[in-house]
Prior knowledge:
Elements: E1 4-7, H1 13-24, E2 28-33, H2 40-49, E3 55-58, H3 64-78, E4 83-86, H4 101-129, E5 132-137, H5 140-144, H6 150-170, E6 175-182, H7 188-191, H8 195-202, H9 214-225, E7 236-239
Helix pairs in contact: 1-9, 3-4, 4-6
Acetoacetyl-coenzyme A (CAA) is lined by residues 91, 93-95, 139-141, 146-149, 152, 183-184, 189-190, 193-194, 197, 201-202.
Amino acid sequence: xxxxxxxxxxxxxxxxxxxxxxxxxxxxxxxxxxxxxxxxxxxxxxxxxxxxxxxxxxxxxxxxxxxxxxxxxxxxxxxxxxxxxxxxxxxxxxxxxxxxxxxxxxxxxxxxxxxxxxxxxxxxxxxxxxxxxxxxxxxxxxxxxxxxxxxxxxxxxxxxxxxxxxxxxxxxxxxxxxxxxxxxxxxxxxxxxxxxxxxxxxxxxxxxxxxxxxxxxxxxxxxxxxxxxxxxxxxxxxxxxxxxxx
Length: 246
Ligand code: CAA
């Protein structure tokens, strides 16, 4: 039977590559987009003109009730979710000295609370059905730390604490929970870093001397979502060109 895969923040960057990969493997792929996103319908049309058959739902992942309503609607329209990829995330990079409470809250709510908000909606169904995959997209900076990212690194580190604890609780129920920690991937988020910082501070730290490709991360998501990955749970898998090893 066709699986339903929900990828949060699937319009662009890593999320888009993940949606394309899972669809290519036969999943019915659903994504969420921020209610403020004015180009969502255009994106959806473009992707579906290419034959992907994506569905997209507006959802504020930082808001529990919005996630609840969104997943209820998806379940009613398509059926229960088998694979959840918690991918939506933002940055508000600045030194701690300049960071306001609002900058802290925005990143923690969008990147970490969202993981609870979305997973909470699908986990009981997965354990009841005896099969499920939750894949949390964290970051190299969750373990390594990064200049200007106290908020982001805290949220991304928190995601993996969540992964480890939840994976224990659902291990006997056929559900795996894993973290992927990408390094610097050639997405809009990374391209927003000032070029001189990228060239002088970041690229020299990457032994492969290049940014990663979204498709490389998508391939890892596809593996973790697969049947073959049934024994992988509670893991944090790096994909960072050798930048950071732990
Ligand atoms: N490492 C060490 N020193 C750094 C630095 C870095 N990465 N970035 C800036 N500095 C230094 C500058 O050289 C400068 O030093 P001097 O005062 O001696 O000249 C000083 O810090 C500048 O301090 P400011 O408070 O003025 O910093 P700023 O406001 O100009 O910029 C910043 C700070 C916005 C954080 C900028 O450094 C930046 O964008 N850094 C990149 C942060 C980053 O890696 N973000 C990742 C985004 S991608 C992502 O998050 C995806 C993923 O998961 C990997």
